[in-house]
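re: ur question from yesterday

yeah so i grabbed the chain u mentioned. its 134 aa long if i counted rite. heres the sequnce exactly as i have it in my notes:
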Amino acid sequence: MLQVFNSLYWTLSKLVFQVFSILEKAMKASQAAQLKTLATLVERETAEVMKKLESARRDEVKALAKIHKDKDEMVRIKREVASSIVEKGVSERVRLKEAYRKRQEELERQHSEARSRLEEERAKVQKNVDWTLI
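ran it thru and got these C-alpha coordinates back, copy pasting raw so excuse formatting
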Protein backbone atom coordinates (compact mmCIF):
# COMPACT_ATOMS: atom_id res chain seq x y z
CA MET A 1 0.00 0.00 0.00
CA LEU A 2 2.86 2.34 0.86
CA GLN A 3 4.37 1.66 -2.53
CA VAL A 4 1.12 2.74 -4.23
CA PHE A 5 1.10 5.99 -2.26
CA ASN A 6 4.74 6.66 -3.09
CA SER A 7 4.07 5.98 -6.76
CA LEU A 8 1.03 8.24 -6.69
CA TYR A 9 2.98 10.97 -4.90
CA TRP A 10 5.82 10.92 -7.43
CA THR A 11 3.37 10.86 -10.33
CA LEU A 12 1.46 13.86 -8.97
CA SER A 13 4.66 15.71 -8.13
CA LYS A 14 6.00 15.11 -11.62
CA LEU A 15 2.71 16.26 -13.15
CA VAL A 16 2.70 19.44 -11.04
CA PHE A 17 6.29 20.12 -12.07
CA GLN A 18 5.48 19.64 -15.76
CA VAL A 19 2.37 21.82 -15.64
CA PHE A 20 4.18 24.66 -13.90
CA SER A 21 7.18 24.34 -16.22
CA ILE A 22 4.88 24.75 -19.20
CA LEU A 23 3.16 27.72 -17.56
CA GLU A 24 6.50 29.33 -16.77
CA LYS A 25 7.77 28.83 -20.32
CA ALA A 26 4.59 30.33 -21.80
CA MET A 27 4.74 33.25 -19.37
CA LYS A 28 8.38 33.99 -20.25
CA ALA A 29 7.59 33.90 -23.97
CA SER A 30 4.66 36.24 -23.48
CA GLN A 31 6.72 38.64 -21.39
CA ALA A 32 9.52 38.68 -23.95
CA ALA A 33 6.97 39.43 -26.67
CA GLN A 34 5.54 42.29 -24.61
CA LEU A 35 8.99 43.84 -24.15
CA LYS A 36 9.73 43.46 -27.85
CA THR A 37 6.40 45.07 -28.77
CA LEU A 38 7.16 47.97 -26.45
CA ALA A 39 10.58 48.48 -28.04
CA THR A 40 9.03 48.35 -31.52
CA LEU A 41 6.41 50.90 -30.49
CA VAL A 42 9.07 53.29 -29.21
CA GLU A 43 11.10 52.92 -32.42
CA ARG A 44 8.01 53.68 -34.47
CA GLU A 45 7.12 56.71 -32.33
CA THR A 46 10.68 58.01 -32.60
CA ALA A 47 10.68 57.62 -36.39
CA GLU A 48 7.33 59.45 -36.65
CA VAL A 49 8.57 62.33 -34.50
CA MET A 50 11.74 62.63 -36.57
CA LYS A 51 9.72 62.65 -39.82
CA LYS A 52 7.49 65.41 -38.43
CA LEU A 53 10.49 67.47 -37.38
CA GLU A 54 12.12 67.04 -40.78
CA SER A 55 8.88 68.03 -42.50
CA ALA A 56 8.60 71.09 -40.25
CA ARG A 57 12.20 72.04 -41.13
CA ARG A 58 11.50 71.78 -44.86
CA ASP A 59 8.32 73.84 -44.55
CA GLU A 60 10.12 76.49 -42.53
CA VAL A 61 12.97 76.71 -45.05
CA LYS A 62 10.47 76.99 -47.93
CA ALA A 63 8.62 79.77 -46.14
CA LEU A 64 11.84 81.62 -45.40
CA ALA A 65 13.05 81.18 -48.98
CA LYS A 66 10.06 83.19 -50.16
CA ILE A 67 10.93 86.02 -47.78
CA HIS A 68 14.72 86.15 -48.15
CA LYS A 69 16.19 86.43 -51.61
CA ASP A 70 19.84 86.85 -50.60
CA LYS A 71 21.66 83.54 -51.06
CA ASP A 72 24.14 84.06 -48.18
CA GLU A 73 21.33 85.03 -45.84
CA MET A 74 19.39 81.89 -46.83
CA VAL A 75 22.41 79.67 -46.12
CA ARG A 76 22.73 81.21 -42.65
CA ILE A 77 19.01 80.81 -41.97
CA LYS A 78 19.07 77.20 -43.17
CA ARG A 79 21.89 76.48 -40.71
CA GLU A 80 19.94 78.12 -37.88
CA VAL A 81 16.79 76.17 -38.73
CA ALA A 82 18.76 72.92 -39.00
CA SER A 83 20.40 73.62 -35.64
CA SER A 84 17.09 74.30 -33.94
CA ILE A 85 15.56 71.16 -35.46
CA VAL A 86 18.49 69.08 -34.22
CA GLU A 87 17.98 70.47 -30.71
CA LYS A 88 14.26 69.66 -30.88
CA GLY A 89 15.06 66.19 -32.20
CA VAL A 90 17.48 65.50 -29.38
CA SER A 91 15.03 66.70 -26.74
CA GLU A 92 12.23 64.60 -28.28
CA ARG A 93 14.44 61.51 -28.38
CA VAL A 94 15.40 62.04 -24.74
CA ARG A 95 11.74 62.48 -23.79
CA LEU A 96 10.71 59.35 -25.69
CA LYS A 97 13.60 57.34 -24.27
CA GLU A 98 12.66 58.35 -20.72
CA ALA A 99 9.01 57.46 -21.33
CA TYR A 100 10.13 54.10 -22.75
CA ARG A 101 12.35 53.46 -19.74
CA LYS A 102 9.45 54.16 -17.37
CA ARG A 103 7.08 51.91 -19.32
CA GLN A 104 9.70 49.17 -19.47
CA GLU A 105 10.32 49.38 -15.71
CA GLU A 106 6.59 49.16 -15.04
CA LEU A 107 6.24 46.18 -17.38
CA GLU A 108 9.20 44.43 -15.77
CA ARG A 109 7.69 45.08 -12.32
CA GLN A 110 4.44 43.49 -13.47
CA HIS A 111 6.38 40.55 -14.91
CA SER A 112 8.21 40.10 -11.63
CA GLU A 113 4.90 40.10 -9.74
CA ALA A 114 3.48 37.51 -12.14
CA ARG A 115 6.53 35.27 -11.67
CA SER A 116 6.21 35.61 -7.90
CA ARG A 117 2.53 34.67 -8.01
CA LEU A 118 3.36 31.65 -10.18
CA GLU A 119 6.02 30.51 -7.71
CA GLU A 120 3.60 31.00 -4.80
CA GLU A 121 0.97 28.98 -6.64
CA ARG A 122 3.50 26.28 -7.45
CA ALA A 123 4.50 26.02 -3.78
CA LYS A 124 0.85 25.97 -2.68
CA VAL A 125 -0.06 23.20 -5.13
CA GLN A 126 2.99 21.15 -4.19
CA LYS A 127 2.12 21.56 -0.52
CA ASN A 128 -1.44 20.40 -1.25
CA VAL A 129 -0.07 17.36 -3.08
CA ASP A 130 2.17 16.64 -0.07
CA TRP A 131 -0.69 17.00 2.41
CA THR A 132 -3.15 15.05 0.32
CA LEU A 133 -1.00 11.98 0.30
CA ILE A 134 0.03 12.08 3.96
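noticed a couple things. Helices lie at 2-67, 71-132. also The radius of gyration is 29 Å.
anyway ttyl
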